Every structure is written in C-alpha cells, then in structure tokens.
From TrEMBL:
<keyword id="KW-0812">Transmembrane</keyword>
<feature type="transmembrane region" description="Helical">
    <location>
        <begin position="15"/>
        <end position="37"/>
    </location>
</feature>
<feature type="domain" description="PLD phosphodiesterase">
    <location>
        <begin position="183"/>
        <end position="210"/>
    </location>
</feature>
<keyword id="KW-0472">Membrane</keyword>
<keyword id="KW-0378">Hydrolase</keyword>
<keyword id="KW-0443">Lipid metabolism</keyword>
<dbReference type="Pfam" id="PF13091">
    <property type="entry name" value="PLDc_2"/>
</dbReference>
<keyword id="KW-0442">Lipid degradation</keyword>
<protein>
    <recommendedName>
        <fullName>Mitochondrial cardiolipin hydrolase</fullName>
    </recommendedName>
</protein>
<dbReference type="InterPro" id="IPR025202">
    <property type="entry name" value="PLD-like_dom"/>
</dbReference>
<dbReference type="InterPro" id="IPR051406">
    <property type="entry name" value="PLD_domain"/>
</dbReference>
<dbReference type="InterPro" id="IPR001736">
    <property type="entry name" value="PLipase_D/transphosphatidylase"/>
</dbReference>
<keyword id="KW-1133">Transmembrane helix</keyword>
<comment type="similarity">
    <text>Belongs to the phospholipase D family. MitoPLD/Zucchini subfamily.</text>
</comment>
Length: 248
C-alpha cells in the first residue's frame, strides 16, 4: 500500500509554532485589555458633577478668593459623626523600620491607608504640596475631582517648572484648580484638608523616594482647633498665590 503525505498533516514544528503564536496573542490581548481598562481611562470618560459647597466648607469666591466660615457648635459636633475620632486621628510612618525590605510592606500599607483617607472625602480637598510624583496619590486626587469634589492645590514655582508631566501640572491639565507661589522662597508645606473636617500633615513629599525610602510621617487629626488653623492658613496661602497662566 502506498501512503500519501497530506499537505496539512500536523508536525511537532507546526504544533510548537501554533502554541507560541497563541501565547503571544493572549499576552498581547491581555496587555491591550489592561491598557484600555485602567482606572485613568475610566476617569477620563467621566465628567465632573456639579459641585455644591456644604455650609461648613470654605467657599471659593467669584474672583478666586477663599472665604473660611466660622463653624457653629452644632456643625463642630457633626464633624465627629462624619469623621469618627478613633479612625481619623492617626499617625502614618514611612517606611517600615522593622522590615528588612524598605520598599514594601509598611510603606505600601501606609500609602494605601493615606489613599483611603482621600477616598473618604465627600465635598472638598485642599492641598499644599511641594513635590508630588507618586502615582497612587496623584490618581486618587484626580478620581475625587472626577467624582465632582472641589479640589484646590497650592504648590511651589520651582517644582512646578521642573516637572513637566507629573503632579500638580498633571492635575492642572485635567481641570483642577492649581495656584503656585513665586516669591523667591519655597512653598514647602505638605498638608491636606479633607472636607474642612480633617487635616493630614507631616514631612512626607508625595514621591516614590518619600514613600519607599525616606523616614517620613503623616499626622491625621480632626481636632477642631487644629483644623480651623489649617483652614485659615490654606485660605491665606491660596489668596496670596498666583493662578496658573493659561499658556502653562
């Protein structure tokens, strides 16, 4: 009997080539899927909702000035209901000095906790940041802006001009209100006010080195007297700094 070789008879070479092709295609589709469905993509599709300023929050006046209202006793009591003291009075340390790996564990846990505080914001976030390039913190601020919160940022002229795409400049391009100080002296504050009810302050710059390598700290407080002083200081800085020119 004469055997005839079929033109498409599979061989080990064909099977191997087909397998490799499927693996490469699957990997490519996986990267394409992850690229398209990243949080940033979702955020860019969302339009900011109309922001309604709560009665207790600092109000942005027509000329861009901030007005800080005085809180009544009832409003002060309400702060403890919205921001429970046992959760909102904390100290975060970066990184974990007990860990042999300074780039993970406690550092990552602290960043996640910091992100959660911002994610709990309901109305307004006021930021004084000298330098920020940390992806997680940059993204959570953009996320809250896209949810309709009022976001106000004061930064420093030197860091603004030195970084073309990260941090405050990235926020500004997304539509967030940013002002910068340009007086010859640094705007070196690193604090955030959430809902005019809680303050996050400390030595931490929002950078990879600040989070993963340096010994840094962030204090979280809802003490009304402390919050009021920070609100007043932010209003003073905001009103004494310059709006970003349109050509930036």
């Amino acid at each position: 009997m004469i055997s005839i070789a079929m033109p498409f008879q599979p061989t080990w070479t064909n099977v191997l080539v087909a397998g490799v092709t499927i693996m490469i295609s699957s990997e490519f589709m996986s990267h394409l899927y992850n690229w398209y469905f990243t949080p940033k993509k979702y955020l860019k599709k969302l339009k900011p909702r109309k922001f309604i300023t709560p009665g207790w929050a600092a109000r942005l006046q027509p000329k861009g000035q901030l007005e800080v209202p005085k809180l009544t006793e009832e409003e002060l009591a309400g702060l403890n209901m919205r921001k429970p003291p046992e959760i909102w009075n904390e100290v975060l340390f970066f990184p974990d000095v007990l860990s042999s790996d300074r780039t993970s564990r406690r550092a990552n846990m602290a960043v996640k906790q910091l992100v959660r505080y911002f994610d709990e914001a309901k109305s307004i976030i006021s930021l004084c940041v000298y330098l920020n390039s940390n992806h997680d913190l940059t993204e959570i601020i953009l996320k809250k802006y896209r949810e309709g919160l009022l976001i106000q940022v004061v930064t420093d002229y030197d860091t603004w001009t030195a970084h073309n795409s990260s941090g405050a400049k990235f926020w500004y391009k997304q539509g967030i209100h940013v002002r910068m100080k340009n007086t010859g002296y640094l705007m070196h504050n690193k604090f955030a006010i959430i809902d005019d009810e809680a303050v996050l302050t400390g030595s931490l710059n929002w950078t990879r080195q600040g989070v993963q390598s340096n010994n840094e700290n962030v204090l979280v407080s809802t003490d009304p007297q402390i919050v009021t002083k920070y609100r007043q200081e932010f209003a003073k800085l905001w009103n004494n700094t310059n709006p970003i020119p349109i050509d930036h």
